[in-house]
Amino acid sequence: MKKQLRKPENWQDFESLCKILWGEIWNCPEIKKNGRTGQAQHGVDVYGTPQWETEYYGIQCKGKDDYTNSELKENEVDEEIEKAKKFKPKLKKFYFATTANKDAKIEEYIRLKDENSRKNGGFEIHLFSWEDIVDLIDENKRTHDWYVNNIGYKTKYDINVTFDNGENELEFTPILIKNHVKYRTIKKEQSSFGFGLPQYSVDQNRETRLKLLFEPEPVRYFINGETFNKSSCVFALIIENIGNIQIENFKMYINFPADNIDVDIVRKQRKFLDSIKYSYNTLMYRDSNDCVFEPLEQVLVQTDRIMTDKICLRPNIEGTQEILLEYEFVAKDFNKKGELKIKLNTEIIEKDSIEETEIERNNEIRLENCLE
């Protein structure tokens, strides 16, 4: 993926960049800077004769900065063209090279000045804004290597992803109930709650009841209280911009390759009758342990950090295991893959139970949540 290049921090470095870049483009080892600081340069900072030419080309280097939204102005263009007309010997082509961003209005103005100049027997006039110069740098290896390695102006996109404790590894000790279940079959007709009310079935809502015994959610709120899940392991991820440029239009895919865990996003509900519509920046994929982090704020500036919603998981096997969390951060002009580790030291509590059922079932062993 193509990366952007940071603009030079001063006009001297920009002038040096233009000399090396167009020296490579023109295949002109004799390309030179024009005079020295303080001397009249007649609108030309860099000049040379391309290998295939006998006449001179000149470059006017215009350094601009983003912080003041500085742009190349029409009056500047006019002034430099008039100066360049005094350069000796006469120029065949005259270039404006600027660190200002591309602007359709000034590009049109340069084209009109070029057309008028050539009609009147003058030199050609061309404009290269910063985006154009970046393209040329990428196309010319010697200049690219010099600019990146010697000057070090290559924009550095980078992030650091950790758990919310700042580490790359986490360790949990979840507790599971190993329930040895024996089923006792009963008749379907059972006592009712009163005249005219439907009869109660012991298998009614069985799926909902079992879900509570296997889900990774750390807390469940009910009308008569709350239940805490000691089998749940809760964490979040922190993404920090450790590069030298802001990151835009990003999201992060979070994958758990293991199939011996269950993963979910922690619900933000705080009580049973909680009518607040909470927003989430991390969403689970349907029927999967994978999720995606995609916050509303899509700009992460240098040294800043952002946190995912809380994620919860629980093991569904016995014993110690190491879980990999794989992530892929994708953004405008940048992407990065990595992994974090979670160690689960699962404790087991043995339990024997008898459950009534209206449907004949085989006895089973279930690894249930430890709820309190």
Structure description:
The protein is α+β, with helices and mostly antiparallel strands and 372 residues long. The chain folds into 2 domains: 11-151, Trna Endonuclease, Chain: A, domain 1, CATH 3.40.1350.10; 157-372, Immunoglobulin-like, CATH 2.60.40. Helix content is 19%, strand content 35%. The chain has 6 helices and 24 strands. It has helices at residues 11-25, 74-84, 104-119, 130-139, 141-151, 206-214; strands at residues 32-33, 46-48, 56-62, 91-98, 124-128, 159-163, 169-172, 175-185, 219-222, 225-228, 233-235, 237-241, 247-248, 251-255, 261-265, 282-284, 291-293, 299-300, 305-307, 311-315, 320-331, 334-345, 347-357, 364-369. Strands 7-22-21-14-17-16 form a 6-stranded mixed sheet, with no helix packed on it. A 5-stranded mixed sheet has the order 1-2-3-4-5. The protein is rod-shaped and about 110 Å long.
If you compute it from the alpha carbons, what radius of gyration comes out, rounded to the nearest whole angstrom? 34 Å
- The dominant shape is rod-shaped
CATH superfamily of the largest domain, by name, is Immunoglobulins
Highest CATH level, the class of the largest domain: Mainly Beta
What distance lies between the first and last C-alpha atoms, to the nearest angstrom? 51 Å
What is the count of structural domains? Answer: 2
Helix content: 10-25%
Q: Strand order of the main beta sheet, please?
A: 7-22-21-14-17-16
N-to-C SSE series?
A: HEEEHEHEHHEEEHEEEEEEEEEEEEEEEE
Mean pLDDT: 89
The class by helix and strand makeup works out as alpha+beta
Strand fraction: 25-35%
Total helical segments: 6
Q: Low-confidence parts lasting 5 or more residues at pLDDT below 50?
A: 191-197
For the sheet with most strands, the description reads: 6 strands, mixed
